[in-house]
Amino acid sequence: MNLNQAQTIIDGAFAAAAEAAMTPLCVVVLDAGGHIKALSRQDGASFGRVDVARGKAYGALSFGLNSRQVEQLAIDRPYFINGAAGAVGGDLVPVAGGVIVVDTDGNQVGAVGISGDTSDNDELAAMAGINAAGLQAKG
Question: Structurally, how many domains does the chain consist of?
Fold first, then answer.
């Protein structure tokens, strides 16, 4: 994923949030290696949203699953998730809003994490941003 695509994801997520009258968001876009490619926090989003958004995206990449699926793992296997959180340096927020990004060939190219509204709305904004960049969410 290049920087232009990462910025387009952020712009698309913010546009979807505005259209749906969501509360202020923070969007973190990670490359496939888990490094921050782009980050933006809307005015009014609390400073802690950066870490939560990153944790959603990083957790998704760490498991190869969207964070909604990681959330289900946390419900089904809480001891595993607790241990795994330690293994990945605590950078794991197992709730919806972290989405793995794939290119048109299905190759994993990064992840988006969003925090600020409900987890379901965070996820919707992430999907909108990914689509705006011409990329796809991992199914």
Answer: 1
